Amino acid sequence: MTKKELTELTKEELSKEIESIGEKSFRAKQIWQWIYFRGVTDFMEMSNLSLNLRQKLAENYTITRPKIVTEQISIDKTHKWLLEFKDGQRVEMVYIPEKDRGAVCISTQVGCAMGCRFCHTGSQKFTRNLTVGEIVGQFMVARDAYKEWPSPTNEIRYLSNIVVMGMGEPLNNLDNVVKALNILTDGDGIAISRRRVTMSTSGIAPRIVEAMQKTGVRLAVSLHAPNNTIRSQIMPINDKFKIEEVMKACSLYQQGDHSRYITFEYLLLKGINDSEENAKELISLLKKYKLRATFNLIPFNPWPGCGFEPSERKTVENFSKLLDEAGFAAPVRVARGQDILAACGQLKSKKLN
Ligand code: SF4
Questions:
Q1: Catalytic residues, which ones?
Q2: Containing domain of residue 45, as a range?
Q3: Are 43 and 71 contained in the same domain?
Q4: To test ligand 1's pocket by mutation, which of 109, 110, 114, 163 has the most ligand atoms within 8 angstroms of CB?
Q5: Is there an atom of ligand 1 within 6 Å of 345 CB?
Q6: 165 CA closest ligand 1 atom index
Q7: 98 alpha carbon to ligand 1 midpoint, in Å?
Q8: How far is C-alpha 75 from the chain's CA centre?
């Protein structure tokens, strides 16, 4: 009999599962805490459960982490893992440390169907959605590496933030992403605050509001262009959901809640989307839809065969200044982990040359 993987279950599902083997539901809460608060993977360590129950659990269930295939640490301490799941499929995960905190960038699919032209990940064909346990398991691997078990009870954590920006389009795997985020933010376990989780979409307009209502995390949109002509040229998804539809969905999401800020990711590509005119058009676009937003300006990290060049430093600074003067904070993201190809859009599950 194949054993059931417990990290695939939501809190409610775990409770039902434990009841189904004749145990009281409070046992499920204890097991939940062992798995997600203490990070335990061996049932025998669950010392407040009877030996009989521990044996029963070990016979019928597993608590599995994705297997680490390789890991690399950049000179700037950015940490990248190549992880493998039970069926041999692989994704990458990155930890980007700051001084006293840091963000873990997790993947939601193997490969990506969106095919953004500037993205190395997007050049790898979509294979499948990740399961709930595979999404949560990534973060748990990072927790193991930084020995952040049990979950810190104060705000001081190395792994303080989660960005759902790795491989894949999370809104195309929404059911599993919602369940995984509920597990990652659950107060009895890993307990990452929803305010510290950001989910990034390439612009699946009809699902934006639903996704944000179901997850309660922060929204980031990969915009990368001020109009349909440029956006369609670099992001094929724009042929399906035009920039206006994305803007309308963003505006709907912000309606009635002034605390909701959107981050627009904007990768600067030389001669494509980085002119003064492009910046002005971008400002008019956001003003038209009355969006409260900040920008994340990303210098492009070229990869072999990409066909794009990064914008000049002066151009980037000027672009940032124009947005800033119009009331949209637009810091330029410092590229991290360049020496190990861990920067945005560079994740690829095959081994890199
Ligand atoms: S940028 Fe995101 S959505 Fe676009 S291809 Fe890359 S991983 Fe997919």
A1: 92, 344
A2: 4-62
A3: no
A4: 114
A5: yes
A6: 2
A7: 24
A8: 23
Measured distance CA(138)–CA(197) in Å, rounded:
15
Ligand 1 centroid – CA 104 distance (Å): 17
Does residue 352 surpass a pLDDT of 70? no
How far apart (Å, rounded) are the C-alpha atoms in residues 135 and 107? 7
Could you tell me which residues come within 8 angstroms of residue 241 by beta carbon, excluding any fewer than 6 positions away? 203, 204, 205, 206
Separation of alpha carbons 332 and 299, rounded Å: 7
Same domain membership, residue 114 and residue 10: no
223 shares a domain with 240: yes
91 alpha carbon to ligand 1 midpoint, in Å? 13
Closest alpha carbon to 163 in 196, 191, 186: 196
Residues 260-305: tens digit of each pLDDT: 899 999 999 999 999 999 999 999 999 999 999 999 999 888 888 8
Tokens representing 12?
Answer: 């409610």
CB proximity list for 302: less than 8 A, separation 6 or greater? 308, 309, 310
* Ligand 1: residue whose CA is nearest its atom 4: 116
- Residue-wise pLDDT for 160-215, tens only, equals 999 999 999 999 999 999 999 999 999 999 999 999 999 999 999 999 999 999 99
Q: Indicate whether residue 112 lines ligand 1 (CB < 6 A).
A: yes
